[in-house]
Design goal:
The complex is a heterodimer.
Chain A: H1 2-10, H2 12-31, H3 48-72, E1 73-74
Chain B: H1 2-8, H2 10-20, H3 28-45, E1 52-58, E2 61-67, H4 70-89, H5 96-114, H6 118-137, H7 142-173, H8 188-200, H9 209-213, H10 219-240, H11 245-264, H12 268-289, H13 292-323, H14 339-353, H15 359-373, H16 377-403, H17 417-435, H18 437-441, H19 455-474, E3 485-486, H20 490-563, H21 568-588
Antiparallel strand pairs in B: 1-2
Helix pairs in contact in B: 2-3, 2-5, 3-4, 4-5, 4-10, 4-13, 4-17, 5-6, 5-10, 6-7, 6-10, 7-8, 8-10, 10-12, 10-13, 11-12, 11-16, 12-13, 12-15, 12-16, 13-14, 13-15, 13-17, 14-16, 14-17, 15-16, 15-17, 16-19
The chains are: A mainly alpha, B mainly alpha.
Chain lengths: ~80, ~600
């Protein structure tokens, strides 16, 4: 198993390509999906959840890291002082 | 009759095991047999439980130790499975105390799940709190001792709020049976009970005890703790408070709040602890929405969550056990040395993220869909956002920085066989539930009409997860773990207690001394002066009044005597004068 992991580690470019193909496929797949129950506007937009995923992810990293650096982050011995 | 009732209660077996264990310290094989056998007996027993048993009349109260319905059964099922997995994982631990604490803790949790009245509930509730604190203390580090004290203080406070609610409720309606509370008839007492429950469910802002205490617990202790306290709270909320809108809103906030902290934290087990807050948020939200589908989703998610969160804590615990480290900035590149722990942890990670074919996919989606069906698009989007953060922080960040990333050169080898076996069972269950969701759906309290594997839901999930992965690799440099901690609301009582002590030593003590000085210098003199004043008053006042009247009598007597001249004409003159005065008065009037 370690060898398999090593192999994958050495071929990270290939993994990246597979990953991008997968991303494109998910959006293409969304074109053909039947939508029975729509609960709000986002359900009607093709690729909405892709957009939601990437924006949510980047937004969350920026907001949380930002808040942490500006305000919440303290040294590890903060409570011992 | 009574003895058979006692024996059928699974808590009895765990309590019996806890009593037995100290005598088996030298007998290793027998000890292991007890550790594995008792959860197995309990797991078998729960299939045979009658609907109602263990009614005891005590001091005029009706205590109900056994009330069994569908909701009870599904929680008992997963609790006993998790106890079994946890015991296997902790089989190598030599300290009997840890096993005893774990048994009492599991027993308390099963007792809460089975009880039918608030008094019994309270007893088992406190038993859980007081046994679990030992699972923290057994880590035996200074931080653990301190965190344990904070943990028990917070839980005692929560327990008192719960008890106050129970007393007030009894005063109002003279009934202690633990049943569903109607949303329109809830009184102050019911809300106190709800707050007591919410503290154990780690609902912000009373959640900080969890990410404070769990990362400081012992390796096996954390595995038990992550399963029972919060999920017992989910059970009691589902039993008593389905449909309360406050829970729906707070639950959705919890989901996002927990992952927000998980994104920035450094300690692996603290990341997982914040994720409990987030995941329990889904359940609390489902209970708050209160429809059959939402409550089903909450219960299913509790079931799935116990298994995969236990798995994640086991994985992070294995790394901690073998390397002595749990901070992401000190780890990295471990995949060559601990491959099995990696495989199992990643399975836990994809389950919690809700990948198709895993248990998270079939349970989390039910709550989110229920929020959509009952027209709560904002709650739904918040939970979807939390799902993004979950995959980001536990699905990718945690395994990446422990097993891949920069090689830290930390020495390690794979964990003992029993730890790996515990993880393997949990990992198997994650896939089993994901592939055969009906096994779980059949146990849920209401009939299930939800099919997780529909194309739209698959498409939604794959897009969400795929593009979250893309986001991670864009920002991977920004996400580099930092050896820092982040403030949370426990700041208020950690710094608050310090400020209070500071205030006590800097202000209250000097004030007390000052008051002493003032008293000594001024007060004593004032007292002496007052004493003198009283003494003077005593002499001059009291004596004057009393003696004075005596003096007055003497003097009056003297004066009277001087009046009596003894001359008869004076007396006649006086009598005539008196007569005239009386006559005048009579005539005039």
């Amino acid at each position: 198993m370690v060898r398999l992991l090593n192999y994958l580690n050495e071929h990270s470019v290939m993994l990246k390509r597979i990953f991008f193909v997968f991303l494109i496929l998910t959006v293409v797949f969304d074109l053909y999906v039947k939508r029975h129950e729509m609960h709000f506007f986002g359900d009607a937009i093709i690729g909405f959840w892709s957009l939601f995923g990437i924006i949510g992810c980047l937004g969350m990293i920026i907001v949380c890291k930002g808040l942490s650096h500006v305000w919440l982050m303290k040294k590890e011995d903060y409570y011992d002082k | 009759m009574i003895s058979s009732t006692v024996l059928i209660h699974p808590t009895t077996w765990f309590l019996g095991g806890a009593v037995l264990l100290p005598f088996l310290e030298k007998k290793d094989k027998l000890r292991k047999a007890v550790l594995i056998g008792i959860p197995l007996i309990a797991f078998t027993l729960i299939h045979w439980l009658p609907d109602s048993f263990g009614h005891v009349s005590y001091l005029g109260f009706d205590l109900v130790f056994g009330r069994v319905d569908r909701l009870t059964r599904v929680f008992l099922h997963v609790f006993t499975i998790m106890a079994f997995i946890g015991c296997i994982y902790g089989l190598h631990v030599k300290e009997t105390g840890q096993h005893i604490a774990a048994f009492l803790y599991v027993g308390g949790s099963l007792g809460v799940t089975l009880c039918g009245d608030y008094l019994t509930l309270y007893i088992f509730w406190e038993m859980m709190a007081f046994s679990s604190v030992f699972l923290i203390w057994y880590r035996k580090k200074r931080q653990s001792i301190e965190a344990g004290f904070r943990y028990i203080l917070v839980h005692t406070t929560g327990g008192l709020v719960l008890l106050a609610g129970i007393f007030l409720r009894y005063q109002n309606i003279h009934d202690l049976s633990f049943v569903q509370i109607a949303t329109n008839g809830a009184t102050f007492a019911d809300y106190l009970i709800m707050i007591g429950f919410m503290l154990n469910a780690a609902v912000p802002p009373i959640h900080a005890w969890l990410p404070d205490a769990y990362p400081e617990a012992s390796v096996t202790g954390a595995v038990f703790m992550c399963a029972f306290t919060t999920k017992t709270a989910v059970y009691v909320l589902a039993r008593g408070f389905p449909g309360f809108e406050a829970l729906a809103i707070l639950g959705a906030i919890m989901t996002v709040y927990g992952v927000g902290y998980a994104v920035v934290e450094n300690d692996a087990r603290r990341i997982l602890a914040y994720h409990i807050v987030s995941q329990v948020g889904y359940m609390v939200c489902g209970i708050g929405i209160g429809t059959a589908m939402a409550v089903n989703g909450a219960v299913a998610h509790a079931y799935a969550h116990i298994i995969y969160k236990g798995l994640l804590f086991m994985g992070a615990g294995a790394v901690l056990e073998m390397t002595g480290k749990s901070k992401l900035n000190e780890l990295g590149g471990l995949y060559k040395r601990m491959p099995w722990a990696m495989v199992f942890t990643v399975i836990g990670g994809i389950s919690i993220s809700g990948f198709p074919l895993t248990s998270g996919f079939i349970s989390k989606s039910m709550i989110i869909a229920a929020a959509g069906v009952s027209h709560h698009p904002v709650l739904m989007l918040m939970m979807d956002l939390a799902a993004v953060g979950t995959f980001l922080s536990v699905g990718i960040k945690l395994p990446y920085f422990i097993w891949f990333g920069k090689d830290s050169g930390v020495e390690a080898k794979d964990a003992p066989w029993n730890m790996n076996l515990g993880m393997a069972i949990a990992a198997f269950l994650c896939f089993f539930l994901g592939i055969f969701p009906d096994y779980l759906y059949k146990m849920l309290p209401y009939p299930v009409y939800w099919h997780p594997y529909n194309t739209y839901h698959l498409s939604e999930t794959l897009q969400l997860l795929g593009f979250t992965g893309l986001g991670f690799f864009i920002m991977v440099k920004k996400l580099k773990p930092e050896p820092k901690i982040n403030l949370d609301v426990d700041w208020f009582y950690r710094k608050g207690a310090r400020a209070f002590l500071g205030f006590a030593s800097r202000r209250v003590v000097p004030t007390n001394d000052w008051v002493n000085d003032v008293y000594r210098n001024i007060g004593m003199r004032a007292t002496m002066a007052l004493a003198k004043a009283f003494s003077w008053f005593d002499w001059e006042g009291i004596d004057w009044t009393v003696d004075g009247s005596a003096k007055g009598v003497v003097e009056g007597g003297n004066r009277l005597r001087s009046l009596m001249t003894g001359k008869i004409q004076h007396y006649i003159g006086a009598a005539v004068a008196l007569t005239f005065i009386i006559l005048i008065l009579v005539v005039l009037i």
